[in-house]
Specification:
- With 333 residues, this protein is mostly beta strands.
- The protein has two domains: 25-183, no CATH class; 194-332, no CATH class.
- It is 0% helix and 53% strand.
- The strands form six sheets. It has a six-stranded antiparallel sheet with strand order 2-5-4-12-15-8, with no helix packed on it.
- It is elongated.
- It starts with 24 loop residues before the first strand and ends with a strand.
Length: 333
Amino acid sequence: MYLYCQYERTYRLRIRWFAVDDQRIQVISQFNLIPPQNLSYYYANANCDTYFISITSFSSIGPTDVQLSVFFTPPNIVSLYNHYSIGKSENLISLGYQIVLGIDEFFIKSNSILALTNYSSNVYDPNQADRVEFYPFSGMAFQDSFILQWLVVIDNNGVGTKYQINDWGAGYTPNYHNKVRMLKSFTKLAQPIVCNFIRFSSKLEYRGLPRPMFSIEFTNDQTVFTASAYHTINKSISNIELKINCNCITGKKIKSKLFKCQNCPVSQTYYQFEHSCYGAINLLFINARFITQTNAIQELLIDITTSTCKITQLIYNQKLSTFVIVDIQMIDG
């Protein structure tokens, strides 16, 4: 931070600083990108589907235009695009910005506002005690005939807030900005999916065809896994149907656990079963249904080895938590 007052004595400075430590927020910071270009970024929490952008730095060798847009590629990729302006984009030498992602309740954002001259919102928006308001810049038309200076004046009359963006003695730089109201603390808590139906069946498969030790099918989207993977389930699906096939080797046992309750005593957290493998069967089938407790994208890690099959759910609240919702093991009989 650099503060310089050439002609006047400074008696008081008020700095608004926002810091949030929560896994329901993802911040992507790009410092001095040289040369400026369109880029894509990975982010961890697939439920961060709202955003705002803030320009943090730039350098140019002449007049330049910057207008930043964001595009999502589900489930975990966000791309930033800077619109091209003939004869001006070439003057942009470096660019810095932040992309702030959050779950749906994190912030309320206006449409992009184009301010060609001194701007006033005119209307007092009612104060919200649980939110703070600020005004990030996502674009500008830098003239290069004077330095870039914006004066943001926030007027709170105790009932509502309005704001102005004015020139600061040098000249006005047209800009794109947003009005953002950010939540101070979250009310929505993500919870793991829980099993409410299980059916077992078995058979003797005579054909000697090679088959995987374990396979998992999500019947809602007909996706089948025979190896470790990452999988997401759309928030529109509330009943998640699973079909798990297990090779049953004679002399072994298949021990299975399916998650049923988050707040139960430890001994009652899982449905637990044990099946013996013998000459009359060589395949065990598990049909299970899980129900969602949170309207959100469900993020699952699938881990399959030669003797285990495990599904772990990632839960993002203030901290990241993991819940093993399926745990199947091949053990000695």
